[in-house]
Specification:
Helix content is 30%, strand content 26%. By secondary structure, the chain is of the alpha/beta class. Helix 1 crosses helix 4 and helix 6 crosses helix 10.
């Protein structure tokens, strides 16, 4: 959802007013990701989502109110059948949202813009950060209660990167701010933390929201299955790099959503790519003679996920050859092969769904062991 923050930065740079809505706490089942974000303009136009339906309409109305009053709000919703009525958002969960008006008349807008600019620039460069927002709620249990923004900050692996307002005091006695935020770096998650008793922020809330680029998928093979995997992976939010040794199967016209397309021999291709610890490698070339050299190099990278298409017999034969060339059982054990979840997939589209579903499962912390 960094696209929402990118649009927010652009609108603030142009001097526009907009309300940013973020989910800061949630319990139970929800019709949206806890990382969802929504931008609401003064006329009610909006970008992004926090669930759709009657809930989102209510959130948009509250955001427009916050823009008129130039005051942040904490809004709480319980998604029960009684509350949702005929339109029905009876998920049973409870969600709390921070609705923050930003723009020329917002006291916190300048600080927010400065932090957003630095954070988005760092993320585009491959850094992982968290955006930390210190809140001070007003007393009361209303559905939409007033809140004040005490400060923002960017926190990276090594601690405070860019403070604004109160987060800048962390080095002067409030180390818990940095410690809590640092623990969230790289987790693709968000959390709401209460200030510890005895701290000078006691009674305040710290909301930390990770900022990172979506993981990149290195797709080896641009044939029918590769093309289908590319389409499904992009919908699921993965960045895409395509590699094939045939120009007709790796080019921007065939893969218009790819960040890059490379034409190169499969042997040696992995070593020419910046494979990081959050990279995903999917090998769906046209034959084992092209798969094996990719896998042989991929198992020596820090990639988060490696998968290879093929029958169990093909995998067994390939593994025997790779072991003969020095691959260890631990290295080969990292590879999902045959790739994909066992859903009875048959067509390229179905196979692509099974592959990307397994990638999502791995990314979200519930690795699947079954394959097609």
């Amino acid at each position: 959802m960094n696209d929402v923050l990118i649009e927010l930065e652009g609108r603030l740079s142009r001097g526009e007013s907009v309300a940013l809505v973020r989910i800061i706490s949630a319990r139970g089942s929800l019709p949206m990701s806890r990382r969802s974000r929504l931008l609401v303009m003064p006329d009610g136009a909006h970008r992004g989502t926090v669930g759709g339906g009657c809930l989102e309409a209510e959130v948009v109305a509250l955001a427009r109110r916050a823009l008129q009053e130039t005051a942040p709000l904490l809004a709480r919703f319980t998604l029960t059948e009684e509350r949702a009525g005929a339109e029905g958002l009876n998920c049973g969960g409870t969600v709390q949202m921070l609705i923050e008006p930003l723009g020329p008349s917002s006291p916190s807008s300048h600080a927010a813009l400065a932090v957003l600019r630095q954070g988005l620039a760092a993320v585009q460069g491959g850094d992982e950060l968290v955006l930390a927002t210190l809140l001070e709620p007003a007393p009361g249990d209303d559905q939409a209660a007033r809140v004040s923004i005490q400060g923002y900050g960017l926190v990276g692996w090594s601690g405070l990167v860019s403070p604004a307002d109160l987060l800048g005091t962390a080095a002067g006695g409030s180390a818990w701010l940095v410690e809590e935020a640092t623990s969230m770096v790289g987790q693709d998650a968000c959390a709401l933390v209460e200030a510890p008793a005895g701290s000078k922020e006691e009674g305040s809330l710290l909301f930390v929201d990770s900022l990172s680029r979506p993981p990149v998928l290195y797709l080896f093979g641009g044939g029918h299955v590769g093309l289908a995997v590319a389409k499904v992976a992009r919908i699921a939010g993965f960045r895409l790099v395509v590699i094939d040794d045939r120009p007709a199967f790796s080019n921007p016209a065939r893969f218009p959503d790819a960040e890059a397309t490379h034409v190169m021999p499969m042997r040696g291709a992995v070593s020419r790519l910046p494979i990081s610890r959050d990279a995903y490698i999917v090998v769906v070339t046209r034959g084992h003679q092209h798969d094996e050299p990719v896998i042989e190099e991929a198992i020596r990278t820090p990639a988060a996920y490696i998968g290879m298409i093929g029958s169990r017999r093909k995998v067994a034969v390939a593994w025997e050859r790779l072991r003969a060339r020095g691959a260890t059982p631990e290295q080969l054990g990292r590879v999902h092969a045959p790739i994909g979840l066992d859903i009875g997939a048959d067509t390229p589209g179905e196979i692509a769904v099974s592959i990307v579903a397994q990638m999502i499962s791995w990314r979200r912390g519930s690795p699947a062991s079954t394959a097609i």
